[in-house]
Amino acid sequence: MAAGPAGPGATQPLQADDRPSPDEPAGHGVGALRSRSILLLVYWGGAIALIPWIALLYRTQPANAAVYHLAVLRVGASTFMVIGMVATAYWCSRNSHLVVPAATFTATVAFMGAWFGIVTTSGARFMLALAFGLGLHLPVVVVCIWTVRRQRWRLGMVGGSPTHVPVFLTIGAVAFVPLIILAALGAPSSHAAHHLGLMWTGLDVFELFGMALTGWCLWRRLPSLAVAAALTGSLMLCDAWYDVVTTAGRAEGMSLTMAGLEIPLAVLSFAVARAEVLRWPDRSPSASLAAP
Known about the structure:
It is built from nine helices and two strands. It is mainly α. Among the domains are: 85-194, no CATH class; 203-279. It is globular.
């Protein structure tokens, strides 16, 4: 990228010493290196462990089954999405790097809401779910991904977060409130879900990709670690939520056991994402003007 004209407002390329080398540990000393090794074991070990689980799930999961507590499921998923949109709008308006994990969480939750609705329905319900996914969820996913990319560019040049994103996400969050109320009042207690093997197997494949990518970014000390870790944490939360809420009877025990593994990993992943973005240099215009 060509450099712009000199001056306080000019774009400045990221210097080589601003980014850690691939072999640099997250911090200094033996303790930091040990923590990094443990994280690599957690993410890459978890990704490897998911491979036989995915194969077993694909072979044993019934194609069609009843999904319970549909109102709770939809209300919770939409509420998480609204919370993510508000958090993304807030951090974007503050011109903070924390917008990266917030926007990643929002995009992931929105995508998983569309994924669950589209894959598990058929007939007229499929067309309705497709309309909701393309009309409501897809724009949120696109805006959040674009916001993450825009914020990542700030690592290499002076610039700010897009000013119109907070307005769009705030309007979207407000628009989702009546939909949440309608879901709470009008959703049936249960209904038959289709293609459950594809639904759950696909979600676990997404988790495998997220964990492997997080381990790779951690090993290579890439700034994209924040996105990968936030993606993994969001997928873990979605998996725990959908699994626990939609089951009943004897399957609840297994769902709670899996959630007991997924939720701590989600918390760890968000902590890793937050620690990574706090390491990023401040490339805001005010910081550039204040620099010697």
